[in-house]
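Sat 14:20. Reprocessing the chain from the morning session after the first attempt stalled halfway. Input below, unchanged.
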Amino acid sequence: MLNRFRVGLAKQRNMSPTIGALINIYQTTAIMYSPLTLIGVATTLYGLWGGNLIREYLPWFTVWHLLGGLVAFILVAMIFFYKIIIPSIVAWSMQQAYKHRNPVATDLQSILRNQKAIFEELKDIKDRMVGLEGDRNA
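Finished this time. Tokens:
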């Protein structure tokens, strides 16, 4: 059961590259904050005024609950990124790599042209062989 859960957790989905494109463009144009910055800002706000406001509704809530919640949020976000976002980023990157001066794509096009020429030559040989058999039977 545990092994099945681990395999399911590690399995990635094949996604559209759109999400990856948006993330990649965002990463190249903006600075993404880190989990440590998030925790630092959250604990600062909690200490300044957030703690009092939260404790009005949840008197048992402490800074440790806040930190635990943030760590859980970060772990869930990491799993989400691993399973969905990263495959999309890779798919988009591969699309971009294929479209823009990719030597593999150029080689593949050359191979396909050569393959087409070989098939045409084989068709000509086959037609000549059929013609020779027809001459023998006549």
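The radius of gyration is 30 Å.
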